[in-house]
Amino acid sequence: MYNNKDVLNEDIIIAMKNMLDNNNHYAHKFRMARDKLQSLIVSDLKLKLIYDRQSDGRLYNLPNTAEVVALIVGDEHTGNHRDIIIEKQTGLLKRINELHPAYLPLQYPLLYPRGEDGYRPDIPHKDHPNIHAAKRKNVTIREYFCYRLQSRNNEAQTRLHSRRLFQQWIVDGYCMIESQKLNYVTQHQQQLRVDKYINLNVCNNAPETLGNEKGKRVILSSSFVGSQRYMEQLYFDGMTICGHIGFPDLFLTLTCNLVWPEIQKKVRKSNLTPHDCPGVVSRIFKMKLNQLMNDLKRGHVFGPILGFIYTIEWQKRGLPHAHILIFLQLANKYPNPEDIDKIISAEIPNKYTDPELYQIISKHMIHGPCGLPNRSAPCMADGKCIRFFPKKFNEATIVDRDGFPVYRRTNDGRTVQKHGIELDNRFVVPYSPQLLLKYRTHLNVEWCNQSTSIKYLFKYINKGSDRITTSIVNVQNQNGRQHQVDDEIKQYLDCRKQGNTIGRLIWVPPSTGELFYMRMMLSSAKGSQSFKDIITVDNVVYHTFREACFAKGFLGSDQEFLGALREANTWGTPHFLRKLFVNLLFMNTMERPEYVWQQTWRWMTDDVVFNHKSQGYAANPHQNKLIYNEMAYDKEVLATEFNRCYHSMTDKQASIFDNIMCVVASQLGGVYFLYGYGGTGKTFMWKTLSSAVRSNGGIVLTVASSGIASLLLPGGRTTHSKFAIPVLATQNSTCNIHQESDLAELLQRTKLIIWDEAPMCHKFSFEALDKSLKDIMYNDRPFGGKVIVFGSRSDIVHVSLNASYIWDHYIGDGKVGQANNGHCEITIPYEFLIMDFEDPIQAIVDATYPYLLQNYNNADFLQKRAILASTKDVVDKINDYVLSLIPSDEKEYCSADSVDKSDELLNPTFGVLTPEFLNTLKTSGIPNHKLRIKIGTPIILLRNLDQANGLCNGTRLIVTKLGTNVVEAEVITGPNVGYKTYIPRMNMSPSDSPWPFKLIKRQFPFIVSFAMTINKSQGQSLAHVGLYLPNPVFCHGQLYVALS
Q1: Span 306-313, mean pLDDT?
Q2: Strand, coil or helix: what is 652?
Q3: Which residues, listed in sequence order, are joined to residue 701 by a DSSP beta bridge?
Q4: Which residues, other chains included, contact 333 with Cβ-Cβ below 8 Å and sequence gap of 6+?
Q5: What gap in Å lies between CA 899 and CA 915, rounded to an integer?
Q6: Cα(143)–Cα(141) distance, rounded to whole angstroms?
Q7: Alpha carbon of 277 to those of 255, 262, 264: distances in Å?
Q8: Are 207 and 912 a contacting pair, CB within 8 Å?
Q9: Dist CA 1026 CA 396 (whole Å)
Q10: For the DNA helicase Pif1-like 2B domain, which residue ranges apply (predicted)?
């Protein structure tokens, strides 16, 4: 049609015009339309792609490749009709509906040159003796377009060779199909029984409620592919898989490659380009994807897998691609950096020893160029690459503190040239060499963070219907019509076959009332045979499902706190009841504390009249209670203790003591760091310093970074509680201390601050105190000119104190902070290893807890023993095994899990997270959903409850009584051994959530402590320790802490 100068060829146009005039009976109708248009002034119309937008970039970003755009105009009032309107010579208008046989020949006269009919609803199916009677007698619009899309040797290929016109015809056909499906849903609301959805609204902001103002609601059910409910059901399926087999381990992205030989062979035959044959591209891509999934499932490229989830996307970026999540079996989790290097590489191969892989990497796995070499790259935003390229060089693969892999990218000098720019390993997209050599396309492979890979699933559920596709597999016959075979024997056997399926109850929101609570009970009620079985908890039959959920612990209510106080009232004195009630207040767990107080205050005040002895109390000479408490020490006792400690010091200890005391006496200020291995006398030094200052009437503030460490200090407190440091400090954080407040006055009069276990805090915590003391003391010297002594073991965490600007001025002998490559291997002596065993968990338990059955209720036996492991999952396995050995009755407590309401307002998707999925989430710092406990079990606290009585995060106790809503336990470690307390359930959330929402878990704030993580063991005093490492420890300092 075009000549060599891209000008329309007039001869071809005339020939086509004559062909249509002679053969197409619709041609004269266009002539009449032409005459009418020539008689009027018609405005030009434009379709503009908006560049400056506030919408989701994945939905509305500009295309990177040439594509056909479909614009569907209409709503429920217009009926979504897509019409061609022509005017008769009489002046009347004639509307041609999309289902009219004349629609397609009028819209595409070159594809229907003889004016043959397009689609019409009454095209009958062809009779065939081998095909059973179909449910539909006529051809659907989808079947029509599927038929016309195929290439047949006995038919002309005009339509398939029409290039962009063919693409427009495909898009138009797709829009016609979708319009008819939507129109059917609109016209058959009653038959589809979507009225049931009216009661399933999640919140007022849900999309289906936006039509309330018009007085009519049309529901798009979950069976409609691409609808919101359809995507929610896929999402719930994914959540169920995660809850059943855990979080995914690998994340793959497979992208179509237009130069695949299969595609090129097909398109060259027709003298077309791949863009002109979308059907060929899609089918071959699906074949490649099927082959990849077969390699993963049956070829065990990464080892045996438990499951997978994948989505296929056709985005505006050009080519189809698939995102795949792989769930590996436990033995193939690739937990260590060395294991990750075996399957994933982020480096350019050697050009000479591996030229084939080098060429593939150069073409498909190099990002950019972007950054300084190309600031106009599509991935650049605000001068930075949104994909965070170029990466940093890294000598070895590591897993960072957040659990994400940082792949090995050595500075080996290897480069590739892309668009005339030399790019090195910093621009390589991670890949699997084995898969890349086979599929020769962009195939990204990533190791997933086990706790945060859930974000990928949220990403896909929120992306929109044009990017979520379903794969329809025809298991009957090629034309898609199912054969109905009445084989009763086969049906009987099929129904008894055990398949690899995971069951899931249909989700319903809380607004459905008893239906929602029944679903919650069904998720935990095993073997129920009647409704009565479902509402029975601990042999008590409740009246409603909601009451049963409360009894099971699935719901949070003030009734459980009333029950806790009621149970504690039968066990202990009013003094302990008051402490329990105060703990409930501090935990901010009760919804109506005044109601709980009104119901229980008589139990807590029985002894007030008899114990009230206010007369004779010494008057407080200080209006500031904080100063009064710090000055209330017995100076004579402290002087005696100081003399005893000072004369017991070594020469080096005495030298350190004298230097610090000279600075305290001069009040010139100074910062010291005292470090040493465990048992070298740091705690002894703290006692000597504090007794020396306090015996002379001075104020010493002794703090530690953890509650358990503060118990070892005289008058110790945690740093966050004493100095009001934010829990999640940032670079600009300051302490919550106001000028002229009681705490500010206390700090002004303080002579010495002792901060133990300093490196356990982030450097921002030290800097926050430094800035606050400078402000309070009106002094720009470090820490406002105060004398402060930091202490720790000899290992120093680089993100902590010595990474702060404060450290630059106070390095003493220069031996700390020297450069190292960060890698070392430790060989444990043979005599410390358990070599002869069949079950490793049984072996470590027998070695650490010998004669357990004779001593399981002996506090002295349990308080000095523990098994240490690197991960929470391993710790749970050990605790479950030991707990199963103890011959006493077990009680199981279930948590009530929910998502923070503020997160639900920001993202309504979080509101549809099922309770059973939330129950499966595990992370450090909070207990699991199911907490199994027996009397005599050692436990460890996860929150600070009562620091004055030694109930801190890390305190170990032994369970003495088990109630329904409260647990009685006795302290077995620290200076408060023997102290009994009552522990209720409380609301807990991880301080740094690994998920895109804030999880609120109401559960008892402790876990079983036969075994504990290495990090949790810091500050514990243990005489017998078993170290269980099924996998190498690669987090910084873990092995040191375990062995120290």
Answers
A1: 86
A2: helix
A3: 753
A4: 249
A5: 10
A6: 5
A7: 17, 12, 11
A8: no
A9: 30
A10: 916-962
pLDDT digits (tens, 9 = 90+) for 723-781: 888 877 888 888 988 888 889 999 999 999 999 887 777 788 888 899 999 999 998 89
Does residue 742 contact residue 748 with C-beta atoms inside 8 Å?
A: no
C-alpha span between 375 and 368 (Å, rounded)? 10
Tokens 């876990």 sit at which residue? 1007
Tell me the β-bridge partners of 971.
957
Architecture (CATH level 2) of domain 627-809: 3-Layer(aba) Sandwich (3.40)
Q: Percentage helix, strand, coil, to 5, in the chain? A: 40, 15, 45
Please tell me the predicted confidence (pLDDT) of residue 472.
33
Q: Mention every residue, 6+ apart, whose C-beta is less than 8 A from residue 923.
A: 451, 872, 990, 993, 994
Pairing of strands 938-941, 956-962: antiparallel
Strand ranges (E), 938-998:
938-941, 956-962, 966-971, 980-984, 986-988
pTM score > 0.85 for this model? no
How many C-alpha atoms does 596 have within 13 Å on its Cβ side? Answer: 23
CA distance 109 to 937: 83
pLDDT at 150 over 60: yes
Give the 3-state secondary structure of residue 961.
Answer: strand
Task: Specify the amino acid at residue 675.
Answer: Y
Report residue 265 as tokens.
Answer: 């062979």
* pLDDT score of 805 more than 70: no
* Distance (Å, whole) CA 548 – CA 368: 58
Q: What are the CA-CA distances from residue 141 to residues 120, 146, 158 (Å)?
A: 8, 9, 21
Q: Where in the chain is the domain with CATH 3.40.50.300?
A: 627-809
Residue range 228-335+431-464 in CATH 3.30.70: yes
DSSP state of 950: T
Neighbours of 879 (CB within 10 A): 22
993 and 835 in contact (C-beta within 8 Å)? no
For 232-253, write each residue's pLDDT tens digit.
777 777 777 777 787 888 999 9
| DSSP letters for 342-367 | HH-B-SPPPTTTSHHHHHHHHHHSB-
Q: 300 — alpha (psi -120 to 50), left (phi > 0) or beta?
A: left
State both tokens at 317. 């970026």
Q: Which helix (H) or strand (E) holds 405?
A: strand 405-406
CA distances from 823 to 420, 616, 826 (A): 37, 65, 10
Q: Tell me the average pLDDT across 582-594.
A: 81
Question: What's the DSSP call for residue 371?
Answer: B
Plot region of 62 (φ>0 → left; ψ -120 to 50 → alpha; else → beta): beta
- Encode pLDDT of 319-350 as tens digits: 888 989 898 887 777 767 788 888 999 999 99
Find the DSSP H helices in 246-392: 261-269, 278-297, 337-343, 355-364
Q: Report the distance separating Cα 375 and Cα 384, nearest Å.
A: 8
Q: Which residues contact 563 (CB under 8 A, 6 or more apart)?
A: 964, 965, 966
CA angle 174, 176, 180 (to 5 degrees): 120
Token pair for 436: 């890349």
Neighbours of 870 (CB within 10 A): 23
DSSP 804: S
Give residue 363's pLDDT: 92
Q: Which residues of 68-140 form beta strands (DSSP E)?
A: 84-87, 93-96
pLDDT at position 1039 is 63
Tokens 């006529």 belong to which residue?
Answer: 138
Pairwise CA distance, residues 302 & 158, whole Å: 46
Longest Cα–Cα distance of the chain, Å, equals 121
Element (H, E) at 868: strand 865-869
Distances (CA, A) of 889 to 73, 932, 941, 1010: 68, 10, 22, 17
Specify the domain boundaries for CATH 3.30.70 within the chain: 228-335+431-464
Please give the C-alpha separations between residue 369 and each of 257, 416, 426, in angstroms, as whole numbers.
20, 11, 11
